[in-house]
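User: Good morning. I'm curious how adenosine-5'-diphosphate would be positioned relative to this chain. Could you predict the structure with it bound?
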Amino acid sequence: TGTAATAGSGQQTTLGVMGGGQLGRMFVQAAQAMGYFTAVLDPDVISPAGLVSHYHIQSDYLDQQGLAQLMQRCAAITTEFENVPAPALVTLGAHRPVAPGAEAVGIAQDRIKEKAHFVRCGVPVAPYAVIESAAQLAAVADDLLPGILKTARLGYDGKGQLRVSSRAELAAAWDELKNVACVLEKMLPLQAECSVIVARGWDGSCVNFAPQLNLHRDGILAVTQAYEGNMPSALVQQAVEATKSIANELRYVGVLCVEFFLLQDDSKAAQTLGSLIVNEMAPRPHNSGHYTLDACDLSQFDLQVRTLTGLPLLQPRQHSPAIMLNLLGDLWIDGASPPWDQVLALPGAHLHLYGKLKASKGRKMGHLTFTGATVAEVRATALAAARLLG
Ligand code: ADP
Ligand code: MG
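Assistant: Good morning! Here's the predicted structure, ligand included:
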């Protein structure tokens, strides 16, 4: 039983989103294109999603009055960032359809629970140890070094993690991270990184986009390549199946992204663990799926609307090869202004800016997607844009 927006009935169906960032903005825009009203809950006076939504409830995520207002307005509620406090989703979920639910978000928020879930699903993860006490720190196997120490909670874009190559460095790093709960992961020889986005409905049906190949710079996604042949075909099916089993086991409803490592073929790690390792998941649309706005007949945000409202889920079809370039605040620093007149003269360029008023280093301000008739064409235009942007 889908909740379609009811044009002409004199009543408006409103969809809500927890969080006002760019992902919320693109959700709001997809919902509005289908005739919904939207409400955003975000503490900031000005936020990318709040700026374009019919309603903006300016309150903290755990504020009972704010949550009550959101429920009053909305027929169903979703989230746009994984650090929405799970208790807020519990409150909302008691009265309204909320997707994804508190339990799934709570697992994705915590690397310890997340890794345990992956292990439960039988998908390979990097060898790791949980470090919550001095005793666990002392008991770490030498084989996990060199490794990466990651805080269990609140890490993103490479923040909250330190690389360590000896036990002494590990101990110092755990102190530097204030002895909070962490996981230590063995450093693996990466060949590449990819991600898979699925959308799963209330009835358990699940559709997916093809795996995207992702290049990071300084821990932040820089480029996504989305076209056939972007990665070894033997691993495509494996990555999609792993992502679906992760979503199914969570009884997940909504859009889910799982990030993977592709290991160097000839490495010892690849021989013992296999070539494909699951890294982490995001309980929401993902930066690596922004190309779907311009290159697919249904975007990841369209599917977020459809899963939330129980409307039909169709397997999305990609109608063009695509390359996405992230636009970070660095491009605007010191009053600089990117040469849009030249960039937009390139065929197949789609510019998306998130309406952020202040640029800072590493801040995601927008993205550019290139579509075209062939992979070669898309690569050439994306490369030309990258040169123009320096
Ligand atoms: P974040 O939440 O910041 O995205 P990730 O766990 O995805 O954190 O780590 C950020 C990046 O660090 C990854 O995209 C990858 O490039 C690198 N990385 C993380 N874990 C490992 C590992 N075990 N071995 C090698 N590289 C890693
Ligand atoms: Mg990551």
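The mean pLDDT is 95. The longest strand covers residues 190-200.
Let me know if you'd like a different ligand tried.
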